């Protein structure tokens, strides 16, 4: 049966993960695939993976992760910030992959019709621990505990002054687009980060949550009528429920993370029809 499937955090810089991607196939040629970010730090690798997947699945929808947004010294593409994002959008469009800049497609298969919304809203250091009242205090605490996200070195916010400033712009623009959808239309929201904070409560280092989302999206699953919210980034694959809405963390993660698990790596999560 046709299905809407999802995965994230393919991290194909790891050879074992690349082989898993080579084996990702739809159950049915009419299946759609949602890819919720962190495919690779290298633009050529992102292109390789999405090109392969877009030939196998009827439609591929991509939301960027922080790793795609890094300007990694080893990458042939040294664009930064918004310029880099627009370049990635162009690469995806050439492959027929849907990005957050495109019209939202409607899934009309089983469990539909549902509008599929890929998001790029970043994070803004608001998922702070109670010890930190401000972004600066939260960053100081994270540096003191040595749990600093590599984004601080490799994710450049140009032309914005900071990632949180960029996040505010993205949130405002995205809210405008979402508010223009027909009232009550059901959606599937696809974002690299969880839209609500609760899934970050299980992080081993709570100080890391500041790089995992924004309080500004806390009610989006309700306001925009989500049938499901798909995300990754945490590398903690699971299903949770928030205000009656299903949240699916669909990450593959690093080999050292998936190897000890009893379940086979790289299984696609079924979003619709509701399994
Ligand atoms: Fe990741
Ligand atoms: Fe990530």
Provide a descriptive summary of the structure in words.
By secondary structure, the chain is α/β, with parallel strands linked by helices. The protein is 29% helix and 16% strand. The chain contains nine helices and ten strands. It has a six-stranded mixed sheet. A four-stranded mixed sheet has the order 3-2-1-10, covered by helices on one side. The longest helix has 17 residues, at 163-179. The model has no long low-confidence stretch (mean pLDDT 98). The chain binds fe (ii) ion (2 copies).
Show the helix and strand layout.
Layout: E1 4-7, H1 15-22, E2 32-35, H2 43-56, E3 59-62, H3 66-69, H4 81-94, E4 106-107, E5 114-118, H5 135-145, H6 151-154, H7 163-179, E6 187-190, H8 220-223, E7 226-231, E8 238-242, E9 245-249, H9 255-258, E10 269-272
Parallel strand pairs: 1-2, 2-3, 5-6, 6-7, 7-9
Antiparallel strand pairs: 1-10, 4-5, 8-9
The protein binds fe (ii) ion (2 copies).
Residues 9, 11, 38, 65, 233, 235 line the site of one fe (ii) ion.
Beta strand count? 10
Pairing-aware structural class of the strands and helices?
Answer: alpha/beta
- How large a portion of the residues is in β-strands, by DSSP E? 15-25%
Query: What's the alpha carbon Rg, rounded to whole Å?
Result: 17 Å
Helix fraction, binned, reads 25-40%
């Amino acid at each position: 049966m046709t299905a809407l499937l999802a995965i994230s955090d393919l991290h194909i810089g790891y050879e074992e993960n690349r082989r898993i991607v080579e084996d990702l196939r739809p159950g049915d040629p009419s299946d759609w695939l949602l890819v919720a970010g962190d495919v690779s730090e290298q633009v050529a690798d992102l292109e390789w993976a999405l090109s392969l997947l877009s030939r196998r699945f009827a439609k591929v929808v991509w939301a960027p992760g922080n790793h795609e947004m890094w300007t990694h010294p080893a990458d042939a593409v040294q664009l930064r910030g918004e310029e880099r994002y627009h370049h990635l959008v162009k690469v995806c469009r050439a492959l027929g992959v849907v990005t957050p800049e495109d019209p939202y497609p409607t899934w009309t298969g089983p469990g539909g019709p549902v509008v599929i919304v890929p998001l790029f809203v970043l994070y803004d250091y608001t998922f702070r621990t109670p010890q930190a009242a401000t972004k600066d205090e939260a960053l100081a605490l994270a540096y003191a505990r040595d749990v600093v996200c590599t984004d601080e070195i490799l994710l450049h916010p140009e032309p914005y002054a900071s990632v949180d400033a960029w996040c505010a712009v993205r949130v405002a623009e995205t809210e405008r687009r979402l508010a223009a959808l027909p009232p009550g239309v059901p959606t599937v929201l696809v974002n690299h980060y969880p839209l609500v904070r609760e899934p970050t409560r299980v992080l081993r280092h709570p100080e890391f949550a500041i790089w995992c989302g924004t309080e500004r999206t806390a009610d989006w699953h309700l306001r925009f009528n989500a049938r499901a919210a798909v995300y990754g980034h945490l590398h903690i694959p699971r299903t949770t429920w928030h205000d009656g809405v299903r949240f699916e963390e669909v990450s593959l993660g690093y080999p050292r993370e998936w190897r000890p698990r009893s379940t086979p790596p790289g299984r696609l999560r079924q979003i619709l029809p509701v399994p």
